[in-house]
Amino acid sequence: MQNKRILLGITGGIAAYKIATLIRYFIKSGAEVKCIMTPASVDFISPLTIATLSKNPVYQSFWDAKTGEWSNHVALALWADVLVIAPCTANSLAKLAIGLSDNLLVTTYLSAKCPVFIAPAMDLDMYQHSTTKRNLQTLKKDGNFILPAQSGELASGLSGEGRMMEPEDIFKAIESFLVADSALDFANKKVIVTAGPTYELIDPVRFIGNHSSGKMGVEIALELARRGADVILVLGPSNLNPKHANLKCVSVQSAEEMFSVVKKNWKSQNIGVFSAAVADYKPKKVANEKIKKSDANLTIELIKNPDILLWAGENKKNQILVGFALETENEESNAKAKLQKKNLDAVVLNSLKNDGAGFGGDTNKITIFDKDNKSIDFQLKSKTEVAKDIVNFLLKMKN
Ligand code: C5P
Q1: Complete domains list, the chain, with CATH
Q2: 307: CA distance to ligand 1 center in Å?
Q3: Which is deepest, 88, 282, 328, 349, by most CB within 10 Å?
């Protein structure tokens, strides 16, 4: 992590004592570390320890009472490649979520343009509280990365979810983020990724949709962006709000809308990864007003949606095109048939029969088939790791 700049925010929780170890990991890896401590955190670990280990002065308040020197939070935020807030207490979490800037750390957070990682740590009831959950959700939506708390013994004597992620795992998460950043093996490549479900309107309040969360495609788009690609992510309705300097996220609702963004951009792309769970059918007519309940049954006539991937395959010129197949039966033959029919270079199969694979969750288990009839099976992994496998596969095809 030579030359990587880590700005570490420490808040007032018992897990603060573990931050000494985290700083050591960063320093040993060659990174530069500067720390901001909130007023409450100094009761848990001494600024002298933090300053000594980080090899830098510790920033604690807007100005130094002894020297009268001002701590420039904007400069601190601009200096950092990444801001890591660990441990992040329920109190600081709430401040970050609403933008309350009453100390140097939260003020710096508001000035930060770099990626922000937040490692919450608190007692289990606090972690389970709907307020905390809501705040975490808000921070995630705002584009921050949450390093989720772990289960185990807590300082209160209780046992459950709330322990700060172990320093070694925090270090690994940041390292893989920053190191992937520097392996720019997709520089100068333009990639379009489709992700998420599509919603097909029935009337102004109802739609046909599916359970896709968009996570798999979003992780692929982010991995490509980190590795230097210029990425357009066409994202159906989703709670996710991925952010990266190399990523342009276009939000769409229906298959038609997704199709028009793809049609407009496909010609200029080098690679297409189509992971969206596009609705195959849509209502023939969208009612202008809410359809009223009556005693009779209701029949909605459905017509076919455009097959976006098929169109991209038919209009492919020296481009790499990868599709997805989510199957519940005859997985392999269906996936291979899709590869042929849609003129793909590879198809990623995830079977709903595998536990932990497919929609919604944080993990996936995939097999990739290529057009030479070769296939690779991957283990069940987090979607972030699966995205790396898919992008590494793309790299082999591109070279
Ligand atoms: O044919 P099937 O829908 O099973 O194929 C799945 C693949 O095709 C996925 O990559 C999906 O993103 C893409 N697809 C599409 N447009 C559709 C239906 C599927 O791009 N209307």
Answers
A1: 5-181 (3.40.50.1950), 190-398 (3.40.50.10300)
A2: 6
A3: 88
